[in-house]
Design brief:
The chain is α/β, with parallel strands linked by helices. 25% of the residues lie in helices and 23% in strands. The chain has helices at 12-15, 63-67, 83-101, 157-171, and strands at residues 7-9, 35-37, 55-58, 71-79, 114-123, 137-143, 147-149. The strands form three sheets. Strands 4-5-6 form a three-stranded parallel sheet, with helices on one face. The protein has a two-stranded parallel sheet with strand order 1-7. It has a two-stranded antiparallel ribbon with strand order 2-3. Strand 4, helix 3 (83-101) and strand 5 form a beta-alpha-beta unit. It is elongated and about 65 Å long. The two termini are 32 Å apart. It comes from Russula earlei. This is PRTase-like protein.
Length: 172
């Protein structure tokens, strides 16, 4: 069994340390969320499926209609194996193509959907999944093959922040 890679804990405090907000309010374009699980243990999922099978936990109702003719940015916090990003792009493209086929011929002009992908962290390692050549890819930060512990995944945020500070002190 392979050993677990080192962890790197990211905190909200690292990004906006001077301000220390009590709340975060986002002003954004319309956001639609899909839920995909590859590594999480979920009810009804067998142990052998974890890490090998993507499970839809949430999907867009009428995705093809919603996304048709739009410029769509798919965002993920980490691009580890690229498996979930490949799945998301492929399935959303299928949904859009299915909706496109239902349009009368005269409405098809100018209704092409353009996808792009943004990963907050891209792990510098071989990928299992691929993205189509016409889908631009952007990464916020390139990182090694380390385990990224995000604050929104922490069950105890104070312990998470303590460990992140300890990690930072050790690295200094």
């Amino acid at each position: 069994m392979a050993s677990e890679p080192p962890h790197h804990r990211i905190t909200y405090n690292e990004e906006i340390a001077e301000f220390k907000p009590d709340l975060i309010i986002a002003i954004v374009y319309p956001i639609f969320a899909i839920g995909l699980s590859l590594y999480e243990s979920l009810p009804g999922i067998k142990a052998e499926q974890i890490g090998s099978q993507i499970v839809r936990t949430q999907w867009l109702h009428d995705a093809g209609q919603i996304l048709r003719g739009k410029r769509v940015l798919i965002v993920d916090e980490v691009d580890d194996t690229r498996t979930t990003l490949q799945y998301a792009v492929s399935e959303l493209q299928k949904d859009v193509e299915d909706a496109f086929k239902l349009l009368p011929e005269h409405e098809r002009e100018g209704s092409k959907t353009q996808f792009a992908v943004f990963a907050v962290h891209n792990k510098l390692k071989p990928k299992h999944g691929t993205l189509p050549d016409d889908v631009p890819y952007y990464a916020g930060e390139e990182v090694g093959d380390i385990w990224l512990d995000y604050p929104w995944e922490a069950t105890d945020i104070e312990e998470h922040d303590r460990l992140a500070l300890e990690q930072k002190v050790e690295g200094a």
